[in-house]
Amino acid sequence: MERFKGKIAILGSGNIGTSLAKGLAKAGYAMPDQISLTRRKLSGLQAFADQGFVTSSDNAAVVTAADIVVLAVLPQQLNQLLDEIKNSVDIQKHLFISVASGVSCADIRNQLGADVQVVRAMPNTAIAIGQSMTCVASGLAEQENVAEVVRMFETVGAVVKINEDLMTSATALCACGIAFFLRAIRAASQGGVEIGFHADDALKMAVQTAKGAADLLLQMGSHPEQEIDKVTSPKGCTIAGLNEMEHNGFSSSLIKGIKLSATKAGELYTKG
């Protein structure tokens, strides 16, 4: 892979920000000393400083030195952050990537300048192991900048380019979705305990079974129902279990949860 030649600033180094930094360095997209991480309390970034990453609590100074700026704070904290850095913005130099839920590219340009290059990205926490599902969208950014953002996030998982009006939906399906699938795995492991397995064995079995199910779809390019049909025989135990779950609202509950999460994701940011 061709290494990025500039400097990257990740403002707001929580789980997504730090995972992105680790993933980019591990994949060889950038060296640790090309990546700056900011947080109000630097003690929380000491482990990253020890690994060679640049750490700072001065957002404005970090932006001045950067080429790509990742806005990785919570939506509720974004307006304050943009106020801190707006005097450091160089329209000719900077590419902004926002991972804040519910914040449009227009919202950011309204505060930083109409010609600022902004691309939205919505990764999930599997970015920590290079398995993120990241959705990317941009209204007015130049194609070469969008392509660079896609290249960046492809080093830490899969990427799909979508229309910006679907970004809150992407938050629900991909970012919140991690928790939904984890809860399903947890429930399956609890069922395993109830039918006789020790908790650690039941969890291992549920996790590997879920991983196998996902990999079947990814590698075979098939539809879930095609694979389900291979497991369900007439009057069999699989269809009995599936139908019991459906009678109790398994699919509809998941669909309703995703819809509610999408609505909530769109309400997190207040245009102060």
UniProtKB/TrEMBL annotation:
<dbReference type="InterPro" id="IPR036291">
    <property type="entry name" value="NAD(P)-bd_dom_sf"/>
</dbReference>
<feature type="domain" description="Pyrroline-5-carboxylate reductase catalytic N-terminal">
    <location>
        <begin position="7"/>
        <end position="102"/>
    </location>
</feature>
<dbReference type="Pfam" id="PF03807">
    <property type="entry name" value="F420_oxidored"/>
</dbReference>
<comment type="pathway">
    <text>Amino-acid biosynthesis; L-proline biosynthesis; L-proline from L-glutamate 5-semialdehyde: step 1/1.</text>
</comment>
<dbReference type="Pfam" id="PF14748">
    <property type="entry name" value="P5CR_dimer"/>
</dbReference>
<feature type="binding site">
    <location>
        <begin position="72"/>
        <end position="75"/>
    </location>
    <ligand>
        <name>NADP(+)</name>
    </ligand>
</feature>
<keyword id="KW-0521">NADP</keyword>
<feature type="domain" description="Pyrroline-5-carboxylate reductase dimerisation">
    <location>
        <begin position="164"/>
        <end position="268"/>
    </location>
</feature>
<keyword id="KW-0560">Oxidoreductase</keyword>
<feature type="binding site">
    <location>
        <position position="59"/>
    </location>
    <ligand>
        <name>NADPH</name>
    </ligand>
</feature>
<dbReference type="GO" id="GO:0004735">
    <property type="term" value="F:pyrroline-5-carboxylate reductase activity"/>
</dbReference>
<dbReference type="GO" id="GO:0005737">
    <property type="term" value="C:cytoplasm"/>
</dbReference>
<dbReference type="GO" id="GO:0055129">
    <property type="term" value="P:L-proline biosynthetic process"/>
</dbReference>
<comment type="function">
    <text>Catalyzes the reduction of 1-pyrroline-5-carboxylate (PCA) to L-proline.</text>
</comment>
<dbReference type="InterPro" id="IPR028939">
    <property type="entry name" value="P5C_Rdtase_cat_N"/>
</dbReference>
<keyword id="KW-0963">Cytoplasm</keyword>
<protein>
    <recommendedName>
        <fullName>Pyrroline-5-carboxylate reductase</fullName>
        <ecNumber>1.5.1.2</ecNumber>
    </recommendedName>
</protein>
<keyword id="KW-0641">Proline biosynthesis</keyword>
<dbReference type="InterPro" id="IPR008927">
    <property type="entry name" value="6-PGluconate_DH-like_C_sf"/>
</dbReference>
<dbReference type="InterPro" id="IPR000304">
    <property type="entry name" value="Pyrroline-COOH_reductase"/>
</dbReference>
<comment type="similarity">
    <text>Belongs to the pyrroline-5-carboxylate reductase family.</text>
</comment>
<dbReference type="InterPro" id="IPR029036">
    <property type="entry name" value="P5CR_dimer"/>
</dbReference>
<keyword id="KW-0028">Amino-acid biosynthesis</keyword>
